[in-house]
Amino acid sequence: MPISLYIHIPFCAARCPYCDFATAPARTPLRGRYLETLAREIALRGAALDHPRVETVYLGGGTPSLLEPTEIEALGVALGGAFELRPVEVTLEANPETLEVARLDAFRRSLGLTRVSLGAQSLDPEGLKALARTHHVEDVVRSVELVRGAGDLSLNLDLMLGWPGQTREAWRADLERAVSLDPDHLSCYPLTLVHEPEPSVVNWPGSGWPSLARWRSRTAAAQPEDDVVADMYLDAERILARAAFVHYEIANWARHGSQSRHNLVYWRDGEWLGVGVGAHSHLGGKRFWNDMRLATYIQGWSGIVPETEGRPGDAAETAILALRLREGLRVADLAARYGTPAAEDVRERLRTLAGAGLLRWRGDQVSLTQRGRLLANEVFVRLV
Hints:
Elements: E1 3-9, E2 11-12, E3 24-25, H1 31-48, E4 53-61, H2 69-82, E5 84-94, H3 101-111, E6 115-121, H4 125-130, H5 137-150, E7 154-161, H6 168-180, E8 185-190, H7 199-202, H8 209-222, H9 226-242, E9 246-249, E10 252-254, H10 261-267, E11 272-275, E12 280-283, E13 286-289, H11 294-300, E14 310-312, H12 315-323, E15 329-330, H13 331-338, H14 340-351, E16 359-362, E17 365-368, H15 370-374, H16 376-383
Parallel strand pairs: 1-4, 1-11, 2-3, 4-5, 5-6, 6-7, 7-8
Antiparallel strand pairs: 8-10, 9-10, 12-13, 13-14, 15-17, 16-17
């Protein structure tokens, strides 16, 4: 069976204060060693899995668009030696200020790039300032033109709602500007603040945890009320429906045929391998992951391949992922995968929400209603 491949490139020009992913400064002295270690992990994983066929590739971060053409070429060589690459989709996450013709051409030439996911976050100067982003609205427009100039690349724009000081009017204007750029796909996420430090946050030079904690505390106090953010979400549903986007996942909209095939593998709880610091995998019914600390990751993969640790997946996790999708969950599919008792346990947990207006049942198929999308975590917590 084919798998999907996630590649984590942690380097960033600056640390976004709301981010809790595994990241590292772009000019870290460990950069070269990290890329060498990543190539080693790719080779060892590929050999251990008998060089499987890969159908979707996703380069996330961090800021993968910071890689230099020579680094991109070396990554392509490593992947070609470890996997049977037959990608139908190769996605690059990019920050607007880092996208350049030479890098874009290198990704297309070495990795077969088909899709760019641009971290715009906002098309409002006040929004970019509130989120401490390092790019400007003009950078987003320039990057969209660059991607469109390539002729055959699909484009996603990431937008964030609920930033400090944002109003519904500002959010609607943000959406209209995004639609006017004619992307194939839009991801709209509410700003979520994590208050516990991650090792990768603490290890950033000059970004000690107390200062980040203060930023997050001030930001949380200035965020719009939950009901206002809920109204913003409903605004997104209305505006994007009028613009012919299909709302196929809780936070994702796409033109016809432009859904993220890689992310659909996650939501359908398929088979994927994650390589790089902090990367997660799901193979053979087992979930496992790499350490989030850059130095620890490098040390761990420098010798003999570490024994993969993890835990089995379960029916509740599969159900939660499926319920994020517009199509929802078929209980019969859950029974075929985990057995009838596990599937019936999920069904009964969901039945406790009858009358709350959060779920829609159609025979054996269950999906979230509009109210359910707004209160999805209320549904998911019943399953865990």
